Structure formats: C-alpha cells, structure tokens
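Standup notes, protein team

Yesterday: finished cleaning the Buttiauxella gaviniae ATCC 51604 set.
Today: Outer membrane lipoprotein RcsF structure.
Blockers: none.

Input for Outer membrane lipoprotein RcsF:
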Amino acid sequence: MRALPICLLAVMLSGCTMLSRSPVEPVKSTATTPAPEPVKPKPVRPAPVRIYTNAEELVGKPFRDLGEVSGDSCQVSNQDSPPNIPTARKRLQVNASKMKANAVLLHSCDITSGTPGCYRQAVCVGSALNVSAK
C-alpha cells in the first residue's frame, strides 16, 4: 500500500513536466554553431634561388651583387645528428631570398668544430646576386 502513493507522485511529477512545453514549439538546441573560420591566405613562396658554383657561369649575364650571405647547420652536442652541407646550402638559399636575391655564387662550404654553441658546424658562404634576364 505504501508503494501506491509513491508511484502516483512519480506519475504526477512526470506528467507535469510533459505539459510545460507546447508540442508544436520546436526544441531549441543549447549547442552553438561554430563560427566559420576566416580564410587564411596561403604563404607566398619566394622564387627559387639558383646556386652558381663557378664564376665563369655568370660571364655574359648582367647581375648585381647584393652582399655576402651564409647558411649553417649546427650539431649542438656529440649525441645530436651531425651537421650536413646540403642543409647549410638550403639555408644559404633561404637567407639569400630574404635579401631579394635570385642567385648565389657559392664560395665555400666547410665543416668546422669549436664554434661557440655548436659541437660541429657546417657553414656555406657565398655572394647574393640579382641576375637579370636579357
């Protein structure tokens, strides 16, 4: 007999919650729609910087010397991967493109040790050039 009043109370409470909303009224979602992400412009890749290894390749081509440029690859400790010359050459090209150069006359690439902050270091040095097309 005690269970009957508890069941009736539960039915009345659940019945009252069903009547609080109109069946025609749509249920509003609490989740917000994400705002569309702004379109980011694609980064502009600089024009490739050509590497000349011999000054004779520049004979007959008009060019302007923009200054000396270098690139390096550093091995911080004995456990790190060794420095390599291709990475130093690539950084040389990147640094030359920052100077608005479209070519580099490569002077030398060397691996040295004893540089402060590096156990061993590969360094490439060259001249940044702006070679004009005829």
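Follow-up from PR in the comments: The mean pLDDT is 83.
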